[in-house]
Amino acid sequence: MRIGHGYDVHKLVPGRRLILGGEEVPYEKGLLGHSDADVLAHAVSDALLGAAALGDIGCLFPDTDPAYSGANSLQLLQEVCRHVRANRYEIENIDATILCQRPKLRPYITAMRQNLAQACSVPVEQVSVKATTEEGLGFTGAGEGIAAHAVCLLR
């Protein structure tokens, strides 16, 4: 068994779509990044790569490569899972937490779980997604950005 942890953060800015776990969440701001800036998919990707000791998503999909400009992070996650499986690991479970003051994410959690499970080719019961505020503290609490943590277990 191998355990991995992933973390990602992106700044909230006007003029971008807010994509979390492959789900578009209506909001006046979106996350700034080279790809679609899906912090949840990025944190899950890094957890999986970390557990398999395969680096991080920046190694596989560098932000200096124009091929990944505006990339769909769920497609990148699918590629991460191919790398993990090519190294003879199977995903046992994924548990992720989004740190976000606004917007409220509860209505989108089920879809996020389904999107991540599909991208990873695992049953949705093996994927947990939670969201929490930071009670107005720090950059996430001030609404300046959104962060996500993820852990996974590989067999």
Automatic annotation (TrEMBL):
Residues in 2-C-methyl-D-erythritol 2,4-cyclodiphosphate synthase domain copies: 1-154
Binding of a divalent metal cation, residues: 8, 10, 42
Keyword Flavoprotein: no
Lineage: superkingdom: Bacteria
GO molecular function terms attached to this record: 2-C-methyl-D-erythritol 2,4-cyclodiphosphate synthase activity
Pfam families reported in the protein's UniProt record: YgbB
InterPro entries registered for this protein in UniProt: MECDP_synthase, MECDP_synthase_CS, MECDP_synthase_sf
Positions bearing the site annotation: Transition state stabilizer: 34, 133
Residues that, per the record, bind 4-CDP-2-C-methyl-D-erythritol 2-phosphate: 8-10, 34-35, 56-58, 61-65, 132-135, 139
This protein's UniProt keywords: Isoprene biosynthesis, Lyase, Metal-binding
SUPFAM superfamilies for the chain: IpsF-like
Protein family per UniProt: Belongs to the IspF family.
Free-text function comment from the UniProt entry: Involved in the biosynthesis of isopentenyl diphosphate (IPP) and dimethylallyl diphosphate (DMAPP), two major building blocks of isoprenoid compounds. Catalyzes the conversion of 4-diphosphocytidyl-2-C-methyl-D-erythritol 2-phosphate (CDP-ME2P) to 2-C-methyl-D-erythritol 2,4-cyclodiphosphate (ME-CPP) with a corresponding release of cytidine 5-monophosphate (CMP).
UniProt protein name: 2-C-methyl-D-erythritol 2,4-cyclodiphosphate synthase
Taxonomic lineage of the native organism: Bacteria, Bacillati, Bacillota, Clostridia, Eubacteriales
Gene name tied to this protein: ispF
